[in-house]
Amino acid sequence: MVFGAFYFSAAAVGWRIEVEAERFLLGWINAAVCGAVIVRASYLESFATVWWRSLRAAGEESES
To answer: Does the predicted model carry a pTM greater than 0.85?
Structure first.
């Protein structure tokens, strides 16, 4: 009976640790994905800025 109670509480603690570890891991995965999206967005923004400036420069050259 005592062994059964100990096993049950150990299983409950193990399940709780597993849930917390999963949340921790998912949190890091979420942070990595968000970071990658932010980096990608800033890269695309800088690329679009350079592209837009080159288009404007080409347009100004053709006008003169």
So the answer is: no
